[in-house]
Design goal:
single chain; 170 residues; mainly alpha; two-stranded antiparallel sheet; 6 helices; 6% strand; globular
């Protein structure tokens, strides 16, 4: 029960920090961010960025925050593993391992080129930069996202990752 409660708290914390990563960078560009945590994810709202590279940095900031958190949890795990006062406290070590796993997977998952994930938003931003007129870039990015989602879904089902498959479907 304690491991499950820790997993829920880690998921909430990691999602919040991911969205705050987006918010911080959008705040740097003066875009007045707001964060909403919804279901098993979240959103960072802000005014539109003036330059496409601003938007790219804002998008990348969320997964980057997850990778920073994974590294932080790894450093804490190394420190805790060598701390004699925590010797034998398997629960703390499992929470730290879970923090590494959750943030690494969450960062990679968000970089899939599937809209509205960050990877899909990044593809859309890059294509809009090179095709600024009309909605051709949007159509191409949504096509890439649909194909990537189908491939990722099949890959997950083949490996028995039903939770990942249903999370992707959401």
């Amino acid at each position: 029960a304690a491991l499950g409660a820790g997993a829920i708290l880690l998921g909430f914390f990691s999602t919040l920090m991911h969205e705050l990563g987006h918010a911080f960078v959008s705040l740097v560009f003066g875009l007045r961010p707001a964060v909403a945590l919804i279901g098993m994810g979240g959103l960072c709202y802000h005014r539109p960025a003036e330059k496409s590279w601003h938007n790219m940095l804002i998008v990348i900031a969320g997964p980057a925050m997850n990778f920073v958190l994974a590294g932080t949890f790894y450093g804490l795990l190394v420190a805790a593993s060598s701390n004699p006062s925590l010797d034998g406290d398997a629960l703390v070590l499992r929470w730290l391992q879970l923090g590494i796993w959750v943030n690494t997977i969450w960062g990679i998952y968000n970089l899939l080129p599937i809209f509205p994930l960050d990877g899909g938003a990044l593809v859309r931003t890059v294509l809009n930069h090179f095709m600024p007129r009309g909605n051709r870039a949007d159509k191409i990015s949504f096509g890439i996202g649909t194909a990537a989602a189908a491939l990722a879904g099949l890959w997950m089902l083949q490996r028995g990752a039903t939770f990942g498959f249903f999370f992707l479907a959401l």
